[in-house]
């Protein structure tokens, strides 16, 4: 579908403020502040200073929640965001409601207990974030995530992301897109909101899930799925002259990882 910017000068604004640069600044500030977030069911709560609140909003981590005390600004992180900030950016300490620090393995077990498919979901999230995509929940579009090229205030999301489990260790619990009708529904929804369906197939490669180090052995295959439109592929000249080439129903690719130039 291509990039759909929200204003006349938003593309140039995004180019002059790359997301990688914003996140690097956010990571540095968060580390220097010795920031802590408290686990709360399927989220983590974080009290932010005005400066950190601004960087959180710019880097699109967490969602600000309304508090009765207007002098304090609270943010709520998803499980994937919490783990990414703790494990990948090494910028956020996680504590329990009793103010006890949670170590890596304890946090990993907590995440898995709250979401059965957390290892695969997180690997997909990490894969996109590592390539400077802004990742948000895709529940409203029937997906796991949506991916933005830059800040949602500047650009519409390009992809609805569905995470699949592949390989010999697939337990069959994720049956989405396994039948033609599911695929058609997904493509219809994406088409109606001008987005592209991105399927991330995560293979655990037989890894032992007892520690977060297993994520290093995971592999991710990226598949962009597009609807085949017959009118765009029909023969314009039955004599054989001027035939139009068939549009690919599916193209596979591997992002280069360059800033704002992948997928």
Short description:
The protein is 29% helix and 21% strand. It is an alpha+beta fold. Residues 238-263 are annotated as: Disordered.
Helix percentage: 25-40%
Per DSSP, the total helix count is 7
Average residue pLDDT: 85
Into which percentage range does the β-strand content fall? 15-25%
* CATH topology (fold) name: Trna Endonuclease, Chain: A, domain 1
Low-pLDDT windows of residues: 241-258
Describe it:
The protein is α+β, with helices and mostly antiparallel strands. It has one domain: Trna Endonuclease, Chain: A, domain 1 (3-Layer(aba) Sandwich), CATH 3.40.1350. The chain has 7 helices and 11 strands. It has helices spanning 10-16, 19-32, 50-59, 79-88, 104-114, 118-129, 180-192, and strands at 36-40, 43-48, 63-65, 73-77, 93-95, 134-137, 145-148, 159-166, 196-203, 219-225, 250-252. The strands form 2 sheets. It has a 6-stranded mixed beta sheet. A 5-stranded mixed beta sheet has the order 3-4-2-1-5. A hairpin with a 7-residue loop joins strand 6 (134-137) and strand 7. This is tRNA-intron lyase. Keywords: Endonuclease, Hydrolase, Nuclease. It catalyses: pretRNA = a 3'-half-tRNA molecule with a 5'-OH end + a 5'-half-tRNA molecule with a 2',3'-cyclic phosphate end + an intron with a 2',3'-cyclic phosphate and a 5'-hydroxyl terminus. Residues 238-263 are annotated as: Disordered. GO terms for molecular function: nucleic acid binding; tRNA-intron lyase activity.
